[in-house]
Amino acid sequence: MQPRLFKQVDVFTQKPFLGNPVAVVIGAEGLEPDQMQRIAAWTNLSETTFVLPPASPQADYRLRIFSPKQELPFAGHPTIGSAHAVIESGFAVPREGKLCQECAAGLIELSVENTAAGKRILLKAPDPQISAVDEHIARLLSGALGTNGALPHPPVRIDVGVVWLIAELSDSESVAALRPDMGALLEISTAARTVGITVFGKSNDRISQLHVRSFAPALGVAEDPVCGSGNACVGAYLLHTGRIDAYGRDFTARQGMQIGRDGQVTVRIAGNSIRIGGYAVTCVDGTLRMQ
To answer: What domains are defined for the chain?
Structure first.
């Protein structure tokens, strides 16, 4: 089987090794799903993507996204990183600053902005499906996170193709201090039918408006360095709860500092439309050899 173009892209950063890496296999025609899953387990990253020709005439390319354990219908940082990779490789070319990705969650609109710092890529998140969480789950979550008391705001279950339980804490210091019980979070994720829990709090660092942490033991990822879908769900949470005025409709979220990263996610909200994105940089460029 012929070698495939392979890139490892660091997402939500302009400096290598400070964002969230995604492995991207470009030109993945002929690979079976079990081969894709095996490659994703081998890369041992939170996600590995496979770029294919589109089936939809509206799309520029088709993307399949795998965690080490399962295929995902959508994920934020793999979408941004894969768009960076397809542009860099020439697999797809933006038309008037736009790309359209086909994936299991449907068609994802992307915009490519040329800034002084480079190309910034933003995606339009799928329309969120929001549901309340019962008080029992909220109590369990407070204990699992180790917040030493009830959560200041009720958590909310939000589905943007990937389902997260979203919890707001009082400030970024409270977010940074979390030492969660991963076994308990796995049980909560299973009970709430989510991939994990994303927690955020208001920042005072003069760089961002809020800090975020995402825990996904159900996907085999204890803590996601910088989570696109989690940040999209945070935007949906702020709209749903009426808390958007506390942060504004165009803000920056920081994530990953507790595990040696420093990702920055742009979140833009217009009406009920949520866009998230940022910069990306290629760290590994080569070929994947197949037998």
So the answer is: 4-124+278-288 (3.10.310.10), 129-271 (3.10.310.10)
Q: Which of the following is catalytic: 29, 32, 47, 223? A: 47
Instruction: Confirm whether 187 is a catalytic residue.
Output: no
Q: How far apart are CA 234 and CA 199, in angstroms?
A: 8
Contact yes or no for 79/228 (Cβ under 8 A): yes
pLDDT in tens, 245-271: 999 999 999 999 999 999 999 999 999
**Is the pLDDT confidence value at 166 over 90?**
yes
- pLDDT mean over 171-191: 96
pLDDT value of residue 290: 79
Q: Which two tokens stand for residue 60?
A: 């520029």
